[in-house]
Design goal:
two-stranded antiparallel sheet, 18% strand, 45% helix
């Protein structure tokens, strides 16, 4: 739900927690879903609809959860970086969609520093849809890390009961196939080098 004023000329809507929303007189107060507000020509308040404000709303929960599960969570340059021993993540806020999206960094070997996390390339975590809170993503990341740490070496042993488990199975299978291809390429390269050495020796 979003709040706006009948007397406002700037056509801005606010979250209920916004200090400007609290200043609107009851007789001038209008409430509606943000989609309806957008359709009627209103725009989001820059004060209460940025990631800084939303992070502040959840800050106490975020810090408690991060401490409990040994996560480094940093808000910097309108992005939230989450670093663990198993992964590196970035949360950004899409103001026009009023939703967060989760990005994941590939090939992390241990916990990285914040400076390294900022420079790294990320990809969209497709199995996690857009969300309305940062906490929802922290819980997902914690579950993802536990799964990664406890996953069996042989992907054939992975469960496939739920759609998410099937996605993990397919991803693990793909990684295994890529590793096998690389090993095969390395073997052929080694054989070619040895054959080359033999040909030079014969000459």
């Amino acid at each position: 739900m979003r709040i706006m004023s009948r007397e406002s000329s700037n056509m801005v809507y606010h979250r209920p927690e916004c200090r400007y929303a609290r200043k609107i007189r009851k007789k001038n107060r209008i409430e509606m879903d943000w989609e309806d507000a957008e359709w009627k020509g209103y725009s989001p308040c820059k004060c209460c609809d940025g990631i800084e404000f939303l992070y502040k709303l959840e800050k106490e929960k975020i810090e408690r959860y991060a401490g409990q599960f040994n996560m480094d969570v940093d808000l910097k340059d309108r992005k939230v970086y989450v670093r663990t021993d198993s992964g590196c993540w970035k949360i950004i806020y899409k103001i026009r969609e009023q939703r967060f999206i989760l990005l994941h960094r590939n090939y992390v070997n241990g916990r990285v520093c914040l400076e390294d996390a900022e420079k790294a390339p990320y990809h969209r975590q497709r199995d996690m849809p857009e969300a309305g809170s940062i906490m929802k993503y922290l819980k997902y990341i914690n579950g993802h890390d536990k799964y990664k740490q406890n996953a069996p070496e042989d992907y054939h042993k992975l469960p496939q009961d739920t759609e998410r488990q099937k996605q993990y199975y397919r991803a693990a299978k793909k990684r295994k196939e890529k590793r096998s291809e690389k090993r095969l390429d390395s073997l052929f390269l080694l054989i070619e080098k040895q054959e080359g050495i033999k040909q030079l020796s014969c000459c």
